[in-house]
Amino acid sequence: MEESNSQGRLSMTEGNIEGGGTAPDPTPCKDTLHPEAKVRLMKILNERQGTARVKADFIDFEKIHLKYGFGSSESHQPPPNSEGDSSKTPGQTADARGPPKKKFKKERGMNHNRPRNRWVPVSEKLCPSIISGEVCSYGERCNYSHDIAAKAAARELDIGDRCYNFETFGKCRYGVVCRFGSSHLTEDFRNITDEEKFEANASKSATLNNLAIDLKVKLRKKKVKFEKAEQFLSLLAKSKKKSLRQFDQNEIRNGAPEETRCLSSTPGTAPSNLPTPVDEVGQNSVAVDQESTANQNQVLESGSVQRDAATNLGPDDAAPTLAACQATSNQSGDCVPLASQQPRSGIVTNQDIIRTRKCEKKQVNFEGKSYLAPLTTVGNLPFRRVCKRLGADITCGEMAMATNLLQGQPSEWALLKRHSSEDCFGVQLAGYFPDTISKCAELINTYCEVDFVDLNVGCPIDLVFQKGGGSALMGRANKFEDIVRGLDAVLDVPVTVKMRTGISEKHNTAHKLIPKIYDWGASLVTLHGRSREQRYTRTADWNYIRQCVEVAKPHPLIGNGDILSYEDVKTHLENSGAAGVMIARGALIKPWIFTEIKEQRHWDISANERLDILREYTNYGLEHWGSDTEGVEKTRRFLLEWLSFLHRYIPVGILERLPQKIQERPPYYVGRSDLETLFSSTNCADWVKISEMLLGPVPDGFQFLPKHKANSYS
Fold it and tell me: What does the domain layout of the chain look like in residue ranges?
């Protein structure tokens, strides 16, 4: 097969791409490299560590030759250091060599001084009420513009003639500002509604966990009450010893305090009608020693546990005390219901007195499921919808900071949104202290629909680590314990923990913490096989994950790291014994990995099929972020962030050795079509070209720099 040069392989007509037809074959180029040079280059590439094995027919030797030289093996070696510099002449002094060169410092992030889009003042935006055809309740006091005629006259050219929101829901809520408005606007710019389709979808709420305006106001005015969290924090502050802390935690979790629960007549034994705290974590029941019971009674008598039970009592009734409860118990230790002594009218629930115990919580079965990891920036709702359609079983939202959620920041609450197609969905919280995280968890438990809450103990970025959050919690065991216990106390759904092997690269600590984490109340631990210092620059240590699986038994443990094919999943599950795997970067590089896992095959996906996936993503983005100019550019930004990972995929048909490894960097190669070659480009300008195929031309002066620097190649 003849190779194409870099100029020829990117020259394609827009009609071939937008029409969705098959892209033409690569344009052949003049082969000027000697065959012996190709052989030498192939030998160097095959011996080079961290380089993927690509078939020789697809390698772009011309581009490799221009970058590395005429196949010289010396040109592939790293530059010599100051101690072994071969360029030094014997007897040459330091002064003769000139001033020493500055040491190259590798950038650790790409989110510094990134170009930003122009901020549009509120006065230039059309009022949302006017867009939807309603009357603005603020009238002249509204900060938005109400001049529809001026906005219609200044409309930008439409991107396309088909509006996804209008075709899906029967009405586009962006009206005159929609960039696809020609499909649902009249000549006088009135919004058209497909009544039949709109009524059929009116009752369907596609997006859940939206931040209500009244809740946002209450959060900002600090008028939201956190009864469960305040009770736990009060008990935590008064319980200095570990035994008392264990007692207080289970007391909140079990429900009513000792005043409303009947104890056995014999001191030092567990109640006959309730499981002991140890039973709830799956272990055999044990008797409570007399010293612990005495301490518990002391805490109760001192008034450390004061629960308001007046909601189920009359105005003249008093809350039942421990003595009253013991007085109404029979000789066998069974408690006589208080309702029989104090008749009431109507149905009285006990949710405010006896809260959900751990054994009564809704459990999530993670075993054997494909779990999409919480991915900052790129793991947004449209991307999760794509992965869900391709076979993902469990999804989790992006990392959300507990403090920002408590402040009612809409941008942070947007990370908790859930699509109706996500049948098993969780949110991930990050924070520094038990009070903020427990209050935030209670807030989510009350106002959001989630199946589990994940605690982030693996975030390696300095901004979070230096404040004591993320992976820093692995070095703050006491705070870590209080946070997990607080989550378990206030939540009615399971608590999961995502962590790393440790903080230091040479000192793993996860195996010491994992058994304790389950004792503290967590239902599942997900272990990323790298430390905080390693980030993504080393291979995930699945041997250490296997050790942690052993210490975690009989509890389940999920492994995470370096999964890019169904063979990786099969190998790691068999060798480590983990209950399942979490897929992170592998889903960004090839989201169809979930299909491969379910079907147990390598999918040689075509370039046009990959373009259809991107088109599906942009449609979901226009639905989620909006089809106006602001929504289109936001969709474009997140699409480009995803393309910064997606270009690393190497098509199955051009690989010499399967499967592709996540640390392997491909040599310069030519795809089987111009579109496939474009998808493999590492140039940001080519990613912008792909976005223009789907979202139209970029604004004047547009620049893009990826937020995450892909430094994970070997």
Answer: 1-76+606-714, 131-217, 227-273+289-356, 359-603
| Strands (DSSP E) found in 286-387 | 370-372
Question: Which strands, in side-by-side order, build the sheet including 580-583?
Answer: 370-372, 580-583, 557-560, 524-528, 495-500, 452-457, 425-430, 395-401
Catalytic residue numbers, as ranges: 459
Please name the amino acid found at residue 95.
Answer: D
Other C-beta atoms lying within 10 Å of the C-beta of residue 41: 24
Looking at the DSSP assignment, which residues form a beta bridge with residue 418? 208
359-603 folds as TIM Barrel (3.20.20)
Residue from 167, 211, 174, 214 nearest 191 by CA: 174
Task: Note the pLDDT tens digit of each residue in 74-98.
Answer: 433 443 343 334 444 444 444 444 5
pLDDT in tens, 345-401: 555 555 555 566 666 777 889 998 999 999 999 999 999 999 999 999 999 999 999
Name 504's bridge partners.
507
- How does pLDDT run across 291-345, given as a tens digit for each residue? 444 444 443 333 333 333 333 434 344 434 444 444 444 444 444 444 444 555 5
Tell which phi-psi region holds residue 133, choosing left (phi > 0), alpha (psi between -120 and 50) or beta: left
- Give the residue among 540, 690, 698 at the shortest CA–CA distance from 611: 690
Say how far apart CA 2 and CA 625 lie, in whole Å.
44
* H or E element in which residue 58 lies: none
Stated pTM of the model: 0.76
Q: Return the biggest CA–CA distance within the chain.
A: 104
Q: What are the respective helix, strand and coil percentages of the chain, to the nearest 5? A: 45, 10, 50
